[in-house]
Amino acid sequence: MNRTNSFPGRLVGILLLIVCTLLNSTSQVFLKTASNLEGHYSFLGLVSNPWLVGGLAFYAMSTLILMRALKMGDLSILYPVLSLTYVWVYLSSPIIFRTDTYSLEKTIGVLTIVVGVLFLSSETK
């Protein structure tokens, strides 16, 4: 039996994508933090910025996991799960950054993403 076309294979692909979205959202938080630091816009300042280096490292890890996850099933089912990155960023950014806020419109948008992901990723063949 081909592991990638089986139900467990597709489930592993979805779980890997969820890990990918968590790493990707962590990357976005690191990159925003890096962009807020003053005086880190020279080449030496950029390469020595731990937030930038960390953000790029998390992004690279998420990309490698994404590549592996996409081998596990249908792109049309797995790829929408990537939009969960927006959900994690929405939930965490107002906690981490005082300037970010929650709003009714953003909450409705995030709930729409979650419902869409549930519909698209629950398809079985």
Number of domains: 1
How much strand content do the residues show?
Answer: under 5%
Rg, nearest Å = 17 Å
Shape: flat
The tally of beta strands, per DSSP, is 0
Class by helix and strand content? mainly alpha
* Helix-residue proportion: over 70%
Straight-line distance between termini: 15 Å
- Secondary-structure element series: HHHHHH
Poorly predicted residue ranges: none
Q: State the helix count.
A: 6
Strand count, sense and barrel status of the largest sheet are: none
Mean pLDDT, all residues: 86
Describe what this molecule looks like in 3D.
With about 120 residues, this protein is mainly α. Helix 1 packs antiparallel against helix 3, helix 1 packs parallel to helix 5 and helix 5 packs antiparallel against helix 6. The longest helix has 30 residues. The model has no long low-confidence stretch (mean pLDDT about 85).
Topology:
Blueprint: H1 7-36, H2 43-47, H3 50-70, H4 75-78, H5 84-96, H6 104-121
